[in-house]
Amino acid sequence: MKRFFQVTIVVLSIALGLFFIYKGINKHFLSPCKVYGPESTIPLEYQQVISGMCNSGMLVVIGFFQVLSGILLVIPRTRLIGAIVLLPIIFNIFLLHYFLDNRPHELVETGIPLAITILIIVFYYPKWKTIFILK
Q1: Against a cut of 0.70, is the pTM above it?
Q2: Nearest CA-CA partner of 122 in 87, 91, 93
């Protein structure tokens, strides 16, 4: 059972890492800033926040850290560091959707990566416990 859990964490880490590498590169090169039309069903507050972050260049910074954390998640020795770097990013994305967007499918789409990130950090509890607890 322990071996199954280890393999599951490895597979989830690689999948999450590749996903965030793609999302980070997407913010840099593949998609321009979103322009919401008057017929959009997305809440106005969410549109304003995303437009402001896009126009200020903040999404590029977020994209950089998504790529960095994705690369760290894929490499076995740095998997814990990648999850720690990713946690505040995905937590803020989840909260942004929870408070401003509040569409149920968006909460699920951001909640799953958040849960996987927390699961990875919990799995590596014995390692990070020794970092923070001095004997």
Answers
A1: yes
A2: 87
